[in-house]
Amino acid sequence: MAAGGSTQQRRREMAAASAAAISGAGCCRLSKIGATRRPPPARVRVAVRLRPFVHGTAGASDPPCVRGMDSCSLEIANWRNHQETLKYQFDAFYGERSTQQDIYAGSVQPILRHLLEGQNASVLAYGPTGAGKTHTMLGSPEQPGVIPRALMDLLQLTREEGAEGRPWALSVTMSYLEIYQEKVLDLLDPASGDLVIREDCRGNILIPGLTQKPITSFADFERHFLPASRNRTVGATRLNQRSSRSHAVLLVKVDQRERLAPFRQREGKLYLIDLAGSEDNRRTGNKGLRLKESGAINTSLFVLGKVVDALNQGLPRVPYRDSKLTRLLQDSLGGSAHSILIANIAPERRFYLDTVSALNFAARSKEVINRPFTNESLQPHVLGPVKLSQKELLGPPEAKRARGPEEEEIGSPEPMAAPASASQKLSPLQKLSSMDPAMLERLLSLDRLLASQGSQGAPLLSTPKRERMVLMKTVEEKDLEIERLKTKQKELEAKMLAQKAEEKENHCPTMLRPLSHRTVTGAKPLKKAVVMPLQLIQEQAASPNAEIHILKNKGRKRKLESLDALEPEEKAEDCWELQISPELLAHGRQKILDLLNEGSARDLRSLQRIGPKKAQLIVGWRELHGPFSQVEDLERVEGITGKQMESFLKANILGLAAGQRCGAS
Ligand code: ADP
Ligand code: MG
To answer: Is residue 418 included in any domain, yes or no?
Structure first.
């Protein structure tokens, strides 16, 4: 009872802290299982921390170029006009004298309670190298930072909440990874190599094969975390700038299982991220020309900026997939998490430009809206005897390593109904690992339902009323989810068609040249050429085993299928076809890149959507910054927006790919 009493008090404290810190933004209410209602929004919180001068370093005796005004705002000298200062306002500002406890209690502790509600949370430390990110996140034994404090509190809280006699059993696991040069490296198992990032049908981001260590005490945490951190530090010293160019991501999962009916389970994920240094490497190294060769561009950080901009502008395409970090953060930025960004800045003048750029990034991030929701489902033994691990869901190629005994523990903190025939039952489903995730999930639900009927020896309708209702609701919600996906797909298709029609009007014959072997008839011009979504094209190009796909339309129904799956009679039907091989696409991209880097203004004007003004802008940018490393860099040219860049790519990649095809045949 004592534990229960202190838990209540602790919860009240956390709730009070949260209410104080989260002004205006929608406080999170628990949603129902797989709620179909739109979850309430929660803006990304942004705090800025100014570190003190570090004695003995360059510029330590200069006057500061930035200073705090109050607990939310600061000002920095304006390099354009020395009479003025630039003022910024954030959710919190922590000055030179702020302590580790101030930052933790003010900005981090309030979001931890959401983990016990099955919601996700993330803390990101941003800023130039040397501005105090690692100090804020990790700290030192004398001044522990956010990570040890959060772990200490979270473990204490889960022990209390999960104590015997409480309604939920709780377990905590940790994973620790590093993203270095677009490789995801498991710091708890450095030998495992680059890991893949996946998304399940609910939009959860997963890393199959990533080590998860169960932890029940802070000593457990340190036992795993300290050697892994040391690995990273040793690497940093040896490789000099490695740590400033890599992102360190600590993932803590809180798994909850209800002890009594309806036996719900929840999972909350906490990401604690020490980001790579945000300084502009173009300014600091290699005269700004050999960016790609020197590896000075940190793709993930660059894309993070683009993701934040796309979210702010409400663009239909958010480029999460363009980097590992943003893919990992997909459910944390503009996704399902409560997020806090701590921008770390330094007072010295030599940091001035990086400080301004970090403050601008922080100001843009403030506008991003997340929609946190409760990640809740029924425990597998309620639905049936089949327990599906992440590895099993994704099939053998995704599961890089066999699970160790520790990882087995993760999934089953409490004894469950024995999955005696699980492997036999799963075998046909494993083959479907490449299926549409929504469909796969639906099949799995049905499978579980059937299994539960079989194992209990009773039909669905004779199960106790409450459980039955829950089961029915789950199925109903799955249907709704599938409907929602279908509507979304239809919308996308309508958009593509409208775009295509518009491009037709603009006379883009190269782009619309049909790649199909069929002859174009004048009567049905719109049915012959299909514009594929750029993302799909990129995915196909990126996938080494990508097969040729056919996008077909039968009346109002359209499917994306593998060539092999087509029945002969279906082939004969009047349908749209588009065949593009990844090689052709890659070739198209390369051609554009070559033109961007080597073409004269006149050459550039031969591309679709590039007029004399844009051609000049591109040439000017190239002279100033050196060659483009990828076609998407076009967006960095002042005067060319992300949207324009995308429509430029759509208009030209297909055209050049088609040109290549014709030339080759
Ligand atoms: P980053 O991780 O951003 O590169 P660090 O955390 O390593 O920066 O900080 C650089 C130096 O500044 C370190 O010596 C660190 O101890 C010191 N430092 C950073 N923030 C503070 C602070 N708030 N108070 C005292 N020293 C700090
Ligand atoms: Mg650091």
So the answer is: no
- Measured from the alpha carbon of residue 96, the closest ligand is 1
Report d(CA 144, CA 134) in Å as an integer.
11
- Looking at residue 107, the DSSP 8-state letter turns out to be I
Q: Helix crossing, 582-598 with 642-664: angle to 10°?
A: 120
Final residue before a domain boundary, out of 376, 395, 428 = 376
Residue 174 C-alpha to ligand 2 middle, in angstroms?
Answer: 21
Domain extent, residue 236, equals 40-376
Predicted confidence (pLDDT) at residue 412 exceeds the cutoff of 70: no
Looking at ligand 1, which atom is closest to the CA of residue 274? 2
State yes or no: 118 annotated in a binding site.
Answer: no
127 is in an annotated binding site: yes
- DSSP alpha helix (H) spans, 506-546: 534-542
CATH of the domain at 107: 3.40.850.10
**What ligand is nearest to the CA atom of residue 135?**
1
pLDDT in tens, 541-584: 344 333 333 333 333 333 333 333 333 333 333 332 345 567 77
* CA–CA distance, 71 with 48 (Å, rounded to integer): 10
pLDDT given at position 449: 57
Cβ–ligand 1 distance for 593 under 6 Å, the answer no
Task: Determine the residue of 135, 137, 138, 345 to mutate for testing ligand 1's pocket, defined as the one with the most ligand atoms within 8 A of the Cβ atom.
Answer: 135
Which residue do the tokens 């534990």 mark? 3
* CATH code (residue 616): 1.10.150.280
Residue 424 lies inside a defined structural domain of this protein: no
Task: Look at the chain and report how many structural domains it folds into.
Answer: 2
Q: Is 129 annotated as a binding residue?
A: yes
Report residue 236 as tokens: 């940093």
Q: How many residues does the chain have?
A: 665
Instruction: Specify the ligand 1 atom closest to the Cα of 344.
Output: 3
Helix (H, G, I), strand (E, B) or coil at 530: coil
Give the residue from 376, 401, 432 where a domain finishes: 376
User: Is residue 48 domain-resident?
Assistant: yes
From the alpha carbon of 127, which atom of ligand 1 is closest?
3
The two structure tokens encoding residue 519:
């002859």
DSSP 125-169: EES-TTSSHHHHHTB-SSSB-HHHHHHHHHHHHHHHHTSTTSSEE
Structure tokens at 434: 């490449």
Question: Does 373 score more than 90 pLDDT?
Answer: no
Write out pLDDT tens, residues 105-153: 999 999 998 899 888 899 999 999 999 999 999 999 999 999 999 999 9
Mutation pick for ligand 1 pocket among 48, 49, 50, 51 (CB with most ligand atoms within 8 Å): 51
Residue 429 lies in a domain: no
Query: Is 474 known to sit in a ligand binding site?
Result: no
Whether pLDDT at 384 is above 80: no
